[in-house]
Write a structure and sequence with these properties.
It is an enzyme of class 3 (hydrolase). InterPro entries: 4-hydroxybenzoyl-CoA_TE, HotDog_dom_sf, YbgC/YbaW. This protein has 144 residues and is α+β, with helices and mostly antiparallel strands. It has one domain: Hotdog Thioesterase (Thiol Ester Dehydrase, Chain A), CATH 3.10.129. The chain is 31% helix and 35% strand. The protein contains 4 helices and 7 strands. Strands 1, 2, 3, 4, 5, 6 and 7 form a 7-stranded antiparallel beta sheet that branches. A hairpin with a 3-residue loop joins β4 and β5 (87-95). The longest helix has 18 residues, at 23-40.
Length: 144
């Protein structure tokens, strides 16, 4: 399965009063992982935005397993969990410095036109991305 990996140093500002990473920061890290995954495929989300297309989150799930702390390194693993030509579901696992699982999650996205938020087909409008996502999905299925 094609899995992108991104290391993120936990900053003091990302922790809460209990000294652990504040829960919402994991969502930011998921976005960083997703952007890295897209870049690893050879594409640019920023270019898509310049083309007038956005990819909003339509659903997000997160299950917290173990806290991360200031000074640790979070390692975000990202892959295509599901893809149907219109909707992309990314899967995530975030590990701590000791390779212990800290979070599992998914985020679902569609692509929309910036001016009116009408959904567009990735398959039709971005055939290279479509092929890369199909290939990434197949890689994951072939290893199950």
């Amino acid at each position: 399965m094609l899995v992108s990996k991104k290391e993120i140093e936990v900053r003091y500002a990302e922790t809460d009063q209990m000294g652990v990473v504040y829960h919402a920061n994991y969502l930011v890290w998921m976005e960083i992982g997703r952007t890295q995954f897209i870049s690893d495929l050879g594409f640019s989300y920023a270019q898509m935005e310049r083309d007038g297309v956005l990819s909003p989150v339509i659903d997000i799930q997160a299950s917290y397993k173990k806290p991360l702390h200031y000074g640790e390194t979070a390692v975000v693993h990202t892959w295509v969990e599901n893809y149907d030509g219109l909707r992309v579901v990314y899967g995530y696992e975030i590990f701590n410095s000791n390779e212990e699982l800290a979070l599992t999650g998914t985020s679902s996205h569609v692509c929309v036109k910036k001016e009116n938020f009408k959904p567009i087909s990735i398959r039709r409008n971005y055939p290279e991305w479509h092929k890369a996502y199909e290939d990434a999905k197949k890689q994951g299925q072939s290893q199950e």
